[in-house]
């Protein structure tokens, strides 16, 4: 919610007025000098959305604020040109509305448009949430990364490396919404107060690594050529894309990383395929390149890649993982009920590469049970299990 600064105002005063932590207001306005506010400039206030209200007979700014349980001084900040003592019947003003519940709608088939819709809604209400593109998919869809927090410890989680594992995306988006809501309402999640995590940790989320593959599974063939014809040919002429894991070019993005890549490539398909084709060489695809570049330019202390299915947590790679990986995996297993597995007969995955090159904890978390794509009926159970893991990644 944007307000207009008055002479003598301060961000600290806004923090007191709107009951929002000062740090969140400062972080919501990175281009504003907190020690030199200028009258007339606009400032973003998290936790609130502005709605339009039409003045009725006998109403004043103060009566509107009082009836809505709002700070009396908030309305003039949203309506700097309105005359408080001369409001006209039918006049439109802006009224702040506290956001005290989730705003995302994740219990639905969740493609790229749904992700963008929810992220835009969250960015409007929580402007301290940093939202940027780390690259683009084959079809040109920007791949969003979200960052929340001011701490030195960087924790990364991503989802939907595989098209038919799209149910992992709404898991991360709902967690993001719950985290933002708790931060701005001085709340907690499962009894854990969130504000200390904001100050100690920077959370990085890439909710949809493979937007083209997800849309292919959720929405069917794209209209654009050559992607439509090529994907249909790769799928053997079938319009059933429920088994499709790859990106739109038929490359499995989680077999793309230079961690014993040749071994993985040798046992998979040699040509583009709905699943398991590792590409002609490592990191040929823009989506895997985007994640690799993000990781190289960051200082992640641990990474979590959410996949489906099996209710398993993979945490090792060739004995290169640090001792703390086992400790973290045990805590993840405790809070989720999933089974921790140190080693699996696979390679060239994102967590494999992270462990190999950084010698830091990396995890592949296989949520849910059944045949991909998992049904929405599992989403709530999957979310509650994943929530424990995501919280543990912050507090451990």
UniProtKB/TrEMBL annotation:
It holds the Pfam family LysM. GO terms for cellular component: extracellular space. Its cofactor is Zn(2+). The active site is at 366 (proton donor/acceptor). PROSITE patterns: LYSM, PEPTIDASE_M14. CDD domains: LysM (cd00118), M14_Endopeptidase_I (cd06229). One of its GO terms (biological process) is proteolysis. Keywords: Hydrolase, Metalloprotease, Protease, Zinc. Belongs to the peptidase M14 family. This is LysM peptidoglycan-binding domain-containing protein. It comes from Paenibacillus arenilitoris.
